[in-house]
């Protein structure tokens, strides 16, 4: 169950000693700032590693999403925006686990939510962060994300926060977030995703899909 990709944390307040620990992280950020550069830290709010102390010594069963039997996420984020999607499909997408070794956090638990928010504020202050890149944004509870982002921006108004969007559908959701007829509201200041769509639009501008056309077809 051990992973080395960095997305299965076991202790939020400890930096991997193989990377030099907190002291090396401080030196890195200070060196970057001295060169006029910025530092963006990854935030993984959706899950932790199975070795995380809050999973190993769980206060109670409401801190994570559990199912009668192991249930993986479907990765189908379009269900979150589809007004006709079945409730179980939305739940599997949001509350299913990425892999058996990464428990899915219940951000509706107020204690866990506070833990995550306080850690983000602490990191920003302690290390002088300039921004946050939020991993797997669509998988997080939107109410929690709005609360977390607002807490950070209230303390650090110049902080840049952007969400990892894995698909065109997620990106479209973000771009339409402030439209009155669209039910989702988000507090992040930007988004990023890794796809060939920008290259496609640059190569074939006459085939660019306009956002207003997308809205007319989906609302």
What is the string of helix and strand elements?
A: HEHHHEHEHEHH
Number of strands: 4
The percentage of residues in β strands lies in 5-15%
- The strand order across the widest sheet is 1-2-3-4
Oligomer: single chain
Show the helix and strand layout.
Elements lengths: L20 H14 L5 E4 L9 H4 L30 H9 L14 H18 L3 E4 L7 H14 L4 E5 L3 H8 L14 E3 L4 H7 L7 H8 L1
Parallel strand pairs: 1-2, 2-3, 3-4
Helix pairs in contact: 4-5
Question: Would you kindly provide a written description of the structure presented here, covering whatever features stand out?
Answer:
The protein has 219 residues and is of the alpha/beta class. The chain has helices at residues 21-34, 53-56, 87-95, 110-127, 142-155, 168-175, 197-203, 211-218, and strands at 40-43, 131-134, 160-164, 190-192. α4 (110-127) packs parallel to α5 (142-155). The protein is globular and about 50 Å long. The N and C termini lie far apart (43 Å).
A few lines on this structure:
This protein is α/β, with parallel strands linked by helices and 219 residues long. It is built from eight helices and four strands.
Keywords:
single chain; alpha/beta; 219 residues; 4-stranded parallel β-sheet; globular; 4 strands
């Amino acid at each position: 169950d051990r992973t080395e990709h960095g997305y299965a944390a076991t202790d939020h307040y400890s930096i991997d000693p193989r990377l030099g620990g907190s002291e090396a992280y401080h030196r890195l950020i200070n060196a970057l700032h001295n060169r006029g550069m910025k530092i963006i830290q990854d935030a993984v709010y959706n899950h932790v590693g199975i070795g995380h102390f809050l999973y190993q010594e769980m206060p109670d069963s409401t801190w994570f999403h559990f199912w009668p039997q192991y249930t993986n996420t479907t990765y189908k984020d379009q269900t979150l925006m589809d007004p006709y999607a079945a409730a179980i499909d939305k739940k599997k997408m949001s509350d299913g686990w990425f892999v058996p070794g990464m428990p899915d956090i219940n951000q509706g638990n107020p204690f866990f939510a506070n833990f995550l928010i306080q850690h983000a504020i602490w990191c920003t202050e302690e290390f002088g962060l300039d921004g946050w890149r939020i991993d797997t944004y669509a998988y997080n509870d939107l109410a929690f994300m709005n609360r977390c982002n607002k807490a950070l921006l209230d303390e650090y108004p110049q902080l840049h926060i952007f969400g990892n969007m894995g698909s065109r559908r997620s990106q479209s959701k973000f771009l339409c977030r402030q439209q009155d007829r669209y039910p989702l509201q988000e507090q992040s200041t930007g988004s990023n995703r890794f796809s060939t769509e920008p290259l496609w639009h640059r190569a074939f501008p006459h085939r660019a899909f306009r956002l207003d056309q997308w809205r007319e077809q989906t609302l």
